[in-house]
C-alpha cells in the first residue's frame, strides 16, 4: 500500500483547540490521517499526515 505524506510545522503559539480544528478539517476535507506528531524542545509541533494513494488499474481489452 502506498501513501502520500504532508508535513506541517505548527508554532507553539497556536492553541491546542486551533490545532485540533486544523487537523480535523484536513482529515475530513482531504482524507488525511495523522501519522506522527512530535513536540520539539522549543514547543513547536511537527505533524506528519498521510493518505492512501489509490491507483486505478488499467484495463486491457482484447478485440
TrEMBL record:
InterPro entries: DUF5703. Pfam families: DUF5703. This is DUF4177 domain-containing protein. It comes from Nocardioides marmoriginsengisoli.
Amino acid at each position: 500500500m502506498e501513501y502520500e505524506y504532508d508535513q506541517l510545522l505548527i508554532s507553539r503559539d497556536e492553541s491546542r483547540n486551533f490545532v485540533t480544528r486544523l487537523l480535523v478539517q484536513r482529515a475530513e476535507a482531504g482524507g488525511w490521517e495523522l501519522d506522527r506528531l512530535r513536540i520539539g524542545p522549543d514547543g513547536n509541533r511537527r505533524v506528519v499526515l498521510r493518505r492512501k494513494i489509490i491507483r486505478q488499474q488499467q484495463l486491457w481489452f482484447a478485440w
